[in-house]
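Per your request, structure below.
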Protein backbone atom coordinates (compact mmCIF):
# COMPACT_ATOMS: atom_id res chain seq x y z
CA UNK A 1 0.00 0.00 0.00
CA UNK A 2 1.34 3.45 -0.90
CA UNK A 3 1.86 6.24 1.63
CA UNK A 4 0.03 9.49 0.85
CA UNK A 5 1.23 12.86 2.09
CA UNK A 6 -0.23 16.37 2.24
CA UNK A 7 1.85 18.55 -0.06
CA UNK A 8 2.76 22.25 0.41
CA UNK A 9 4.81 24.72 -1.61
CA UNK A 10 5.74 28.40 -1.48
CA UNK A 11 4.20 30.68 -4.08
CA UNK A 12 7.16 32.70 -5.37
CA UNK A 13 4.90 35.56 -6.46
CA UNK A 14 3.68 36.57 -3.00
CA UNK A 15 5.76 34.34 -0.73
CA UNK A 16 2.68 32.64 0.78
CA UNK A 17 2.28 29.00 1.62
CA UNK A 18 -0.02 27.02 -0.65
CA UNK A 19 -1.36 23.51 -0.33
CA UNK A 20 -2.27 21.05 -3.07
CA UNK A 21 -5.91 19.98 -2.86
CA UNK A 22 -5.21 16.25 -3.10
CA UNK A 23 -2.64 14.22 -1.19
CA UNK A 24 0.09 12.57 -3.25
CA UNK A 25 1.54 9.08 -3.07
CA UNK A 26 5.28 8.95 -2.32
CA UNK A 27 7.59 7.84 -5.15
CA UNK A 28 11.36 7.20 -5.26
CA UNK A 29 14.12 8.69 -7.39
CA UNK A 30 17.03 6.55 -8.55
CA UNK A 31 19.17 8.09 -5.78
CA UNK A 32 16.59 6.85 -3.21
CA UNK A 33 15.26 10.34 -2.49
CA UNK A 34 11.46 10.56 -1.92
CA UNK A 35 9.47 12.51 -4.50
CA UNK A 36 5.92 13.15 -5.72
CA UNK A 37 4.17 13.69 -9.02
CA UNK A 38 2.50 17.06 -9.61
CA UNK A 39 0.99 17.91 -13.01
CA UNK A 40 3.05 15.21 -14.66
CA UNK A 41 6.37 16.43 -13.23
CA UNK A 42 8.52 14.93 -10.49
CA UNK A 43 9.55 16.98 -7.44
CA UNK A 44 11.78 16.13 -4.47
CA UNK A 45 10.04 16.42 -1.11
CA UNK A 46 11.04 16.65 2.54
CA UNK A 47 9.04 16.79 5.79
CA UNK A 48 7.45 20.13 6.52
CA UNK A 49 7.93 19.96 10.29
CA UNK A 50 9.95 17.87 12.69
CA UNK A 51 8.34 14.54 13.72
CA UNK A 52 5.57 14.99 11.12
CA UNK A 53 6.17 12.93 8.00
CA UNK A 54 2.71 12.94 6.41
CA UNK A 55 3.00 16.67 5.55
CA UNK A 56 5.75 17.67 3.10
CA UNK A 57 6.97 20.66 1.09
CA UNK A 58 8.55 20.94 -2.38
CA UNK A 59 10.07 23.62 -4.62
CA UNK A 60 7.55 24.19 -7.39
CA UNK A 61 10.20 25.88 -9.57
CA UNK A 62 12.60 22.94 -9.45
CA UNK A 63 11.17 19.85 -11.15
CA UNK A 64 13.46 16.87 -11.69
CA UNK A 65 14.52 15.94 -15.21
CA UNK A 66 13.17 12.41 -14.98
CA UNK A 67 10.08 10.60 -16.23
CA UNK A 68 7.25 9.18 -14.14
CA UNK A 69 8.26 5.71 -15.32
CA UNK A 70 11.66 6.12 -13.62
CA UNK A 71 10.09 7.09 -10.30
CA UNK A 72 7.99 4.16 -9.06
CA UNK A 73 5.63 4.21 -6.09
CA UNK A 74 7.01 2.78 -2.85
CA UNK A 75 5.10 0.99 -0.12
CA UNK A 76 4.18 2.70 3.13
CA UNK A 77 7.06 1.41 5.26
CA UNK A 78 9.74 2.38 2.72
CA UNK A 79 8.24 5.87 2.28
CA UNK A 80 8.23 6.49 6.03
CA UNK A 81 11.87 5.42 6.39
CA UNK A 82 12.95 7.75 3.56
CA UNK A 83 11.11 10.73 5.04
CA UNK A 84 12.31 10.10 8.59
CA UNK A 85 15.93 10.43 7.43
CA UNK A 86 15.45 13.86 5.88
CA UNK A 87 15.94 17.25 7.55
CA UNK A 88 12.51 18.87 8.08
CA UNK A 89 11.65 22.20 6.49
CA UNK A 90 11.39 23.86 9.92
CA UNK A 91 15.18 23.48 10.24
CA UNK A 92 15.91 25.04 6.84
CA UNK A 93 16.07 28.65 5.71
CA UNK A 94 12.33 29.18 5.26
CA UNK A 95 10.41 32.27 6.36
CA UNK A 96 9.38 31.58 10.02
CA UNK A 97 6.04 33.35 9.44
CA UNK A 98 5.14 30.69 6.89
CA UNK A 99 5.91 27.92 9.36
CA UNK A 100 3.85 29.66 12.04
CA UNK A 101 0.97 30.24 9.64
CA UNK A 102 0.91 26.59 8.65
CA UNK A 103 1.17 25.33 12.23
CA UNK A 104 -1.78 27.42 13.37
CA UNK A 105 -4.19 26.19 10.70
CA UNK A 106 -7.23 24.49 12.23
CA UNK A 107 -9.78 22.06 10.90
CA UNK A 108 -12.17 25.00 10.43
CA UNK A 109 -9.62 26.79 8.26
CA UNK A 110 -9.32 23.71 6.09
CA UNK A 111 -13.09 23.24 6.12
CA UNK A 112 -13.63 26.46 4.17
CA UNK A 113 -12.13 24.76 1.14
CA UNK A 114 -14.15 21.57 1.39
CA UNK A 115 -15.91 20.83 -1.93
CA UNK A 116 -19.65 20.20 -1.98
CA UNK A 117 -19.09 16.69 -3.31
CA UNK A 118 -16.44 14.43 -4.84
CA UNK A 119 -16.45 11.41 -7.13
CA UNK A 120 -14.65 8.10 -6.78
CA UNK A 121 -13.66 5.42 -9.24
CA UNK A 122 -16.68 3.39 -10.41
CA UNK A 123 -17.55 0.40 -8.27
CA UNK A 124 -19.35 -2.82 -9.10
CA UNK A 125 -22.38 -3.95 -7.14
CA UNK A 126 -24.86 -6.80 -7.30
CA UNK A 127 -28.49 -6.91 -6.21
CA UNK A 128 -30.94 -9.77 -5.85
CA UNK A 129 -34.69 -9.99 -6.14
CA UNK A 130 -36.04 -13.44 -5.37
CA UNK A 131 -33.55 -15.75 -7.13
CA UNK A 132 -32.45 -13.26 -9.77
CA UNK A 133 -29.18 -11.37 -9.43
CA UNK A 134 -28.35 -8.24 -11.41
CA UNK A 135 -24.90 -6.71 -11.81
CA UNK A 136 -24.29 -2.99 -12.24
CA UNK A 137 -21.50 -0.44 -12.25
CA UNK A 138 -22.13 2.82 -10.43
CA UNK A 139 -20.28 6.13 -10.24
CA UNK A 140 -20.33 7.23 -6.56
CA UNK A 141 -20.98 10.92 -5.97
CA UNK A 142 -20.14 11.49 -2.32
CA UNK A 143 -21.74 14.31 -0.31
CA UNK A 144 -20.81 15.33 3.23
CA UNK A 145 -23.47 14.68 5.88
CA UNK A 146 -23.17 16.75 9.03
CA UNK A 147 -24.57 14.73 11.91
CA UNK A 148 -27.54 16.38 13.60
CA UNK A 149 -27.40 15.04 17.16
CA UNK A 150 -29.75 15.80 20.07
CA UNK A 151 -28.30 18.00 22.82
CA UNK A 152 -27.43 16.33 26.11
CA UNK A 153 -29.58 17.57 29.02
CA UNK A 154 -32.06 19.36 26.72
CA UNK A 155 -33.02 16.39 24.50
CA UNK A 156 -31.63 13.45 26.44
CA UNK A 157 -30.10 12.71 29.82
CA UNK A 158 -28.52 9.95 31.93
CA UNK A 159 -29.89 9.29 35.42
CA UNK A 160 -28.31 6.77 37.77
CA UNK A 161 -30.13 5.19 40.72
CA UNK A 162 -29.31 2.52 43.28
CA UNK A 163 -30.62 -0.28 41.08
CA UNK A 164 -30.36 0.83 37.44
CA UNK A 165 -29.13 3.52 35.07
CA UNK A 166 -31.67 5.28 32.83
CA UNK A 167 -31.25 7.07 29.51
CA UNK A 168 -34.12 9.53 29.16
CA UNK A 169 -35.00 10.76 25.66
CA UNK A 170 -37.35 13.30 24.10
CA UNK A 171 -38.96 12.96 20.70
CA UNK A 172 -37.66 15.34 18.03
CA UNK A 173 -40.44 17.94 17.76
CA UNK A 174 -38.64 19.71 14.88
CA UNK A 175 -39.50 16.99 12.34
CA UNK A 176 -42.87 15.85 11.10
CA UNK A 177 -42.62 12.23 12.16
CA UNK A 178 -41.67 11.90 15.83
CA UNK A 179 -40.10 8.46 15.53
CA UNK A 180 -36.81 8.91 17.36
CA UNK A 181 -37.93 6.75 20.30
CA UNK A 182 -39.32 3.98 18.05
CA UNK A 183 -36.05 4.01 16.08
CA UNK A 184 -33.98 3.65 19.26
CA UNK A 185 -36.13 0.71 20.43
CA UNK A 186 -35.83 -1.03 17.06
CA UNK A 187 -32.06 -0.56 16.93
CA UNK A 188 -31.52 -1.82 20.47
CA UNK A 189 -33.74 -4.85 19.77
CA UNK A 190 -32.06 -5.66 16.43
CA UNK A 191 -28.44 -4.42 16.73
CA UNK A 192 -27.24 -6.73 13.93
CA UNK A 193 -29.44 -4.91 11.39
CA UNK A 194 -27.58 -1.57 11.50
CA UNK A 195 -24.14 -0.47 10.32
CA UNK A 196 -22.21 2.22 12.18
CA UNK A 197 -21.99 5.61 10.46
CA UNK A 198 -18.18 5.61 10.84
CA UNK A 199 -17.68 2.05 9.60
CA UNK A 200 -16.91 3.01 5.98
CA UNK A 201 -15.60 5.99 4.00
CA UNK A 202 -19.06 6.52 2.55
CA UNK A 203 -22.46 4.81 2.43
CA UNK A 204 -24.62 4.28 -0.65
CA UNK A 205 -28.13 5.73 -0.75
CA UNK A 206 -30.95 3.17 -0.89
CA UNK A 207 -32.45 4.81 -4.03
CA UNK A 208 -30.00 2.73 -6.06
CA UNK A 209 -32.50 -0.15 -5.76
CA UNK A 210 -35.15 1.26 -8.09
CA UNK A 211 -32.54 2.60 -10.52
CA UNK A 212 -31.11 -0.83 -11.15
CA UNK A 213 -34.33 -2.81 -11.41
CA UNK A 214 -36.87 -0.46 -12.93
CA UNK A 215 -34.88 1.70 -15.34
CA UNK A 216 -32.85 0.96 -18.43
CA UNK A 217 -29.65 2.74 -17.52
CA UNK A 218 -26.20 3.19 -18.95
CA UNK A 219 -23.33 1.55 -17.10
CA UNK A 220 -21.50 3.79 -14.67
CA UNK A 221 -24.54 5.89 -13.71
CA UNK A 222 -24.06 8.45 -10.96
CA UNK A 223 -25.24 7.31 -7.52
CA UNK A 224 -25.66 9.51 -4.46
CA UNK A 225 -23.63 8.57 -1.38
CA UNK A 226 -23.14 10.11 2.07
CA UNK A 227 -20.02 10.48 4.19
CA UNK A 228 -19.62 11.85 7.71
CA UNK A 229 -15.95 12.66 7.01
CA UNK A 230 -14.92 16.09 5.74
CA UNK A 231 -11.44 14.58 5.61
CA UNK A 232 -12.63 12.22 2.89
CA UNK A 233 -13.67 15.13 0.66
CA UNK A 234 -10.23 16.68 1.25
CA UNK A 235 -8.41 13.41 0.62
CA UNK A 236 -7.03 13.50 4.16
CA UNK A 237 -6.16 10.42 6.28
CA UNK A 238 -9.11 8.90 8.17
CA UNK A 239 -9.28 6.24 10.88
CA UNK A 240 -12.37 4.06 10.31
CA UNK A 241 -14.14 2.36 13.18
CA UNK A 242 -12.87 -1.19 13.57
CA UNK A 243 -16.47 -2.37 14.11
CA UNK A 244 -18.84 -2.59 11.14
CA UNK A 245 -22.23 -3.03 12.80
CA UNK A 246 -23.80 -1.77 16.00
CA UNK A 247 -23.79 -5.38 17.24
CA UNK A 248 -20.05 -5.77 16.52
CA UNK A 249 -19.34 -2.89 18.89
CA UNK A 250 -22.03 -3.24 21.57
CA UNK A 251 -23.42 -6.77 21.31
CA UNK A 252 -26.94 -7.55 22.55
CA UNK A 253 -28.24 -4.82 24.88
CA UNK A 254 -30.45 -6.00 27.73
CA UNK A 255 -32.82 -3.11 28.41
CA UNK A 256 -36.33 -2.13 29.40
CA UNK A 257 -38.20 0.98 28.28
CA UNK A 258 -41.46 2.85 28.77
CA UNK A 259 -42.95 6.36 28.74
CA UNK A 260 -41.82 8.62 31.58
CA UNK A 261 -44.32 9.56 34.26
CA UNK A 262 -42.25 12.01 36.32
CA UNK A 263 -39.45 14.55 35.78
CA UNK A 264 -35.83 13.50 35.95
CA UNK A 265 -33.42 14.62 38.69
CA UNK A 266 -32.40 17.59 36.51
CA UNK A 267 -35.99 18.88 36.56
CA UNK A 268 -36.75 18.06 32.91
CA UNK A 269 -39.77 15.95 31.98
CA UNK A 270 -38.59 13.61 29.22
CA UNK A 271 -40.88 11.58 26.95
CA UNK A 272 -39.39 8.11 27.44
CA UNK A 273 -36.74 6.15 29.28
CA UNK A 274 -34.47 3.22 28.42
CA UNK A 275 -33.23 1.27 31.44
CA UNK A 276 -29.90 -0.61 31.65
CA UNK A 277 -28.09 -2.40 34.45
CA UNK A 278 -25.38 -0.64 36.45
CA UNK A 279 -22.54 -2.34 34.54
CA UNK A 280 -22.81 0.48 31.97
CA UNK A 281 -20.77 3.57 32.87
CA UNK A 282 -22.01 7.03 31.90
CA UNK A 283 -19.21 7.32 29.33
CA UNK A 284 -20.22 4.00 27.75
CA UNK A 285 -23.84 5.12 27.51
CA UNK A 286 -22.82 8.45 26.01
CA UNK A 287 -20.80 6.59 23.37
CA UNK A 288 -23.55 4.03 22.77
CA UNK A 289 -26.24 6.67 22.26
CA UNK A 290 -23.89 8.81 20.16
CA UNK A 291 -23.72 5.85 17.77
CA UNK A 292 -27.52 5.46 17.85
CA UNK A 293 -28.17 9.17 17.23
CA UNK A 294 -25.56 9.18 14.40
CA UNK A 295 -27.29 6.26 12.65
CA UNK A 296 -30.66 7.98 13.12
CA UNK A 297 -29.32 11.27 11.72
CA UNK A 298 -28.29 9.56 8.47
CA UNK A 299 -31.56 7.58 8.40
CA UNK A 300 -33.57 10.84 8.41
CA UNK A 301 -31.75 12.01 5.26
CA UNK A 302 -31.60 8.66 3.45
CA UNK A 303 -33.88 6.03 5.05
CA UNK A 304 -32.24 2.62 5.58
CA UNK A 305 -28.87 3.83 4.27
CA UNK A 306 -27.21 2.05 7.22
CA UNK A 307 -29.43 -1.02 7.08
CA UNK A 308 -27.54 -4.29 6.82
CA UNK A 309 -30.47 -5.74 4.87
CA UNK A 310 -30.05 -3.23 2.07
CA UNK A 311 -30.47 -5.67 -0.81
CA UNK A 312 -27.16 -5.06 -2.60
CA UNK A 313 -23.51 -5.96 -2.18
CA UNK A 314 -20.38 -4.05 -3.14
CA UNK A 315 -17.83 -6.20 -4.94
CA UNK A 316 -14.48 -6.07 -3.19
CA UNK A 317 -13.53 -4.46 0.11
CA UNK A 318 -15.62 -1.31 0.63
CA UNK A 319 -13.31 -0.26 3.45
CA UNK A 320 -10.32 0.22 1.14
CA UNK A 321 -9.69 3.92 0.62
CA UNK A 322 -10.76 4.82 -2.97
CA UNK A 323 -9.28 7.51 -5.18
CA UNK A 324 -11.39 10.66 -5.20
CA UNK A 325 -11.88 13.30 -7.91
CA UNK A 326 -13.54 16.69 -8.26
CA UNK A 327 -14.95 15.61 -11.65
CA UNK A 328 -16.19 12.17 -12.69
CA UNK A 329 -13.15 10.13 -13.78
CA UNK A 330 -13.02 9.05 -17.40
CA UNK A 331 -12.86 5.29 -17.51
CA UNK A 332 -11.60 3.78 -20.72
CA UNK A 333 -13.86 0.93 -21.76
CA UNK A 334 -12.11 -2.17 -23.08
CA UNK A 335 -12.55 -3.04 -26.73
CA UNK A 336 -15.46 -5.47 -27.06
CA UNK A 337 -14.48 -8.95 -28.09
CA UNK A 338 -16.05 -10.65 -31.04
CA UNK A 339 -18.35 -13.38 -29.80
CA UNK A 340 -21.03 -15.66 -31.16
CA UNK A 341 -23.69 -12.96 -31.00
CA UNK A 342 -21.53 -10.66 -33.10
CA UNK A 343 -21.07 -13.38 -35.74
CA UNK A 344 -24.79 -14.10 -35.73
CA UNK A 345 -25.55 -10.41 -36.16
CA UNK A 346 -23.15 -10.23 -39.09
CA UNK A 347 -24.79 -13.21 -40.77
CA UNK A 348 -28.27 -11.83 -40.17
CA UNK A 349 -27.37 -8.62 -41.94
CA UNK A 350 -27.21 -10.67 -45.13
CA UNK A 351 -30.88 -11.40 -44.85
CA UNK A 352 -33.01 -8.34 -44.21
CA UNK A 353 -36.16 -10.34 -43.48
CA UNK A 354 -34.45 -12.47 -40.83
CA UNK A 355 -32.86 -9.36 -39.33
CA UNK A 356 -36.24 -7.61 -39.06
CA UNK A 357 -37.79 -10.64 -37.40
CA UNK A 358 -34.88 -10.80 -35.01
CA UNK A 359 -35.33 -7.15 -34.03
CA UNK A 360 -39.02 -7.75 -33.33
CA UNK A 361 -38.16 -10.75 -31.18
CA UNK A 362 -35.47 -8.78 -29.37
CA UNK A 363 -37.93 -5.98 -28.60
CA UNK A 364 -40.41 -8.57 -27.36
CA UNK A 365 -37.73 -10.14 -25.20
CA UNK A 366 -36.82 -6.71 -23.79
CA UNK A 367 -40.45 -6.08 -22.93
CA UNK A 368 -40.86 -9.48 -21.29
CA UNK A 369 -37.62 -8.95 -19.36
CA UNK A 370 -38.78 -5.54 -18.18
CA UNK A 371 -42.18 -6.95 -17.17
CA UNK A 372 -40.41 -9.72 -15.28
CA UNK A 373 -38.24 -7.19 -13.46
CA UNK A 374 -41.28 -5.07 -12.65
CA UNK A 375 -43.04 -8.17 -11.32
CA UNK A 376 -40.04 -8.91 -9.14
CA UNK A 377 -40.09 -5.32 -7.95
CA UNK A 378 -43.80 -5.72 -7.16
CA UNK A 379 -42.95 -8.81 -5.11
CA UNK A 380 -40.31 -6.78 -3.29
CA UNK A 381 -42.81 -3.98 -2.66
CA UNK A 382 -45.32 -6.52 -1.33
CA UNK A 383 -42.64 -7.91 0.97
CA UNK A 384 -42.03 -4.37 2.20
CA UNK A 385 -45.79 -3.95 2.66
CA UNK A 386 -45.82 -7.11 4.76
CA UNK A 387 -43.00 -5.72 6.88
CA UNK A 388 -44.88 -2.45 7.24
CA UNK A 389 -48.02 -4.40 8.18
CA UNK A 390 -46.02 -6.22 10.83
CA UNK A 391 -44.71 -2.88 12.07
CA UNK A 392 -48.27 -1.53 12.09
CA UNK A 393 -49.46 -4.59 14.04
CA UNK A 394 -46.61 -4.06 16.48
CA UNK A 395 -47.74 -0.48 17.08
CA UNK A 396 -51.37 -1.60 17.35
CA UNK A 397 -50.40 -4.09 20.05
CA UNK A 398 -48.37 -1.43 21.88
CA UNK A 399 -51.27 1.03 21.64
CA UNK A 400 -53.77 -1.59 22.87
CA UNK A 401 -51.58 -2.45 25.85
CA UNK A 402 -51.18 1.22 26.67
CA UNK A 403 -54.86 2.12 26.18
CA UNK A 404 -56.51 -0.75 28.05
CA UNK A 405 -53.91 -1.91 30.56
CA UNK A 406 -51.40 0.91 31.08
CA UNK A 407 -52.92 2.16 34.34
CA UNK A 408 -52.79 -1.21 36.09
CA UNK A 409 -50.20 -3.33 34.25
CA UNK A 410 -46.58 -2.73 33.29
CA UNK A 411 -45.36 -4.93 30.42
CA UNK A 412 -41.70 -5.93 30.29
CA UNK A 413 -40.10 -5.26 26.90
CA UNK A 414 -39.02 -8.89 26.48
CA UNK A 415 -42.67 -9.94 26.74
CA UNK A 416 -43.87 -7.30 24.28
CA UNK A 417 -41.46 -8.68 21.71
CA UNK A 418 -42.88 -12.19 22.21
CA UNK A 419 -46.49 -10.96 22.01
CA UNK A 420 -45.82 -9.23 18.68
CA UNK A 421 -44.83 -12.62 17.23
CA UNK A 422 -48.10 -14.32 18.27
CA UNK A 423 -50.47 -14.80 15.36
CA UNK A 424 -53.22 -13.44 17.61
CA UNK A 425 -52.81 -11.51 20.89
CA UNK A 426 -56.48 -12.01 21.88
CA UNK A 427 -55.76 -14.91 24.25
CA UNK A 428 -53.36 -12.71 26.23
CA UNK A 429 -55.80 -9.77 26.26
CA UNK A 430 -58.62 -11.99 27.58
CA UNK A 431 -56.52 -13.42 30.42
CA UNK A 432 -55.30 -9.99 31.46
CA UNK A 433 -58.84 -8.61 31.49
CA UNK A 434 -59.85 -11.45 33.85
CA UNK A 435 -56.80 -10.68 36.01
CA UNK A 436 -57.83 -7.03 36.38
CA UNK A 437 -61.52 -7.73 37.00
CA UNK A 438 -61.07 -10.53 39.53
CA UNK A 439 -57.52 -11.44 40.43
CA UNK A 440 -58.59 -14.34 42.61
CA UNK A 441 -60.48 -16.01 39.75
CA UNK A 442 -57.29 -16.46 37.72
CA UNK A 443 -55.41 -19.61 38.83
CA UNK A 444 -51.71 -18.98 39.54
CA UNK A 445 -48.67 -20.90 40.68
CA UNK A 446 -45.23 -19.86 41.92
CA UNK A 447 -42.54 -19.68 39.25
CA UNK A 448 -39.81 -22.16 40.10
CA UNK A 449 -36.65 -20.74 41.70
CA UNK A 450 -38.21 -17.30 42.22
CA UNK A 451 -39.62 -15.65 45.34
CA UNK A 452 -41.96 -13.03 43.91
CA UNK A 453 -43.16 -14.21 40.47
CA UNK A 454 -46.37 -16.14 39.72
CA UNK A 455 -47.35 -17.94 36.52
CA UNK A 456 -50.94 -18.01 35.26
CA UNK A 457 -51.79 -21.71 35.60
CA UNK A 458 -53.50 -22.09 32.23
CA UNK A 459 -52.32 -22.36 28.64
CA UNK A 460 -52.64 -19.18 26.60
CA UNK A 461 -53.83 -19.31 22.99
CA UNK A 462 -51.37 -17.63 20.59
CA UNK A 463 -53.49 -18.00 17.45
CA UNK A 464 -51.30 -20.93 16.45
CA UNK A 465 -51.00 -23.09 19.56
CA UNK A 466 -51.87 -23.19 23.28
CA UNK A 467 -48.28 -22.68 24.44
CA UNK A 468 -48.40 -19.02 25.54
CA UNK A 469 -47.32 -18.18 29.09
CA UNK A 470 -48.06 -15.21 31.36
CA UNK A 471 -45.91 -14.40 34.40
CA UNK A 472 -47.04 -11.76 36.89
CA UNK A 473 -45.63 -9.84 39.84
CA UNK A 474 -48.11 -8.15 42.17
CA UNK A 475 -46.96 -4.66 43.22
CA UNK A 476 -47.83 -2.69 46.34
CA UNK A 477 -48.56 0.56 44.50
CA UNK A 478 -51.56 2.24 42.90
CA UNK A 479 -52.77 2.47 40.21
CA UNK A 480 -50.18 -0.04 38.94
CA UNK A 481 -51.05 -3.47 40.33
CA UNK A 482 -49.00 -5.90 38.21
CA UNK A 483 -45.74 -6.25 36.29
CA UNK A 484 -46.27 -8.80 33.48
CA UNK A 485 -44.00 -10.86 31.25
CA UNK A 486 -45.59 -12.63 28.27
CA UNK A 487 -43.70 -15.74 27.17
CA UNK A 488 -43.92 -19.00 25.25
CA UNK A 489 -43.31 -22.61 26.23
CA UNK A 490 -40.30 -22.80 23.86
CA UNK A 491 -38.61 -19.94 25.73
CA UNK A 492 -39.66 -20.95 29.24
CA UNK A 493 -36.15 -21.82 30.45
CA UNK A 494 -34.66 -18.47 29.41
CA UNK A 495 -37.78 -16.63 30.63
CA UNK A 496 -37.35 -18.08 34.12
CA UNK A 497 -33.67 -17.09 34.15
CA UNK A 498 -34.73 -13.57 33.16
CA UNK A 499 -37.33 -13.48 35.96
CA UNK A 500 -34.71 -14.61 38.48
CA UNK A 501 -32.54 -11.65 37.52
CA UNK A 502 -35.51 -9.35 38.13
CA UNK A 503 -36.83 -10.90 41.35
CA UNK A 504 -38.53 -8.67 42.29
CA UNK A 505 -38.66 -6.07 39.46
CA UNK A 506 -37.75 -2.63 40.83
CA UNK A 507 -38.11 1.03 39.95
CA UNK A 508 -40.97 0.98 37.45
CA UNK A 509 -42.48 4.22 38.79
CA UNK A 510 -40.21 6.59 36.77
Amino acid sequence: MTFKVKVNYIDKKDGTLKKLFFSRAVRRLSNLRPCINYSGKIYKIFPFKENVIDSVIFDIDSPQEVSLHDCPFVDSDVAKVMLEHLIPASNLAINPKIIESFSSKTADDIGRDVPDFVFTDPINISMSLANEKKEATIQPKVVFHELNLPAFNDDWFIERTKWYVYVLVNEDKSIESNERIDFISTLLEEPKDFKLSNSAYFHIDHTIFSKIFLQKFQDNFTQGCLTIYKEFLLDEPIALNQHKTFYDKWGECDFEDRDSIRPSVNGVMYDHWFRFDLSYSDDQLRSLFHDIFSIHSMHLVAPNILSVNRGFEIHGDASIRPNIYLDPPIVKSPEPEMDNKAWIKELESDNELVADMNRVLQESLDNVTLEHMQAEETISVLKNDIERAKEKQKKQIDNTLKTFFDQEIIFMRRGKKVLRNFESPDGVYKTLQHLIRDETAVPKKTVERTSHWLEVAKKINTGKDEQGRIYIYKTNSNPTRFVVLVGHKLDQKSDIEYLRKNDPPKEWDK
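The mean pLDDT is 82.

Regards,
D.
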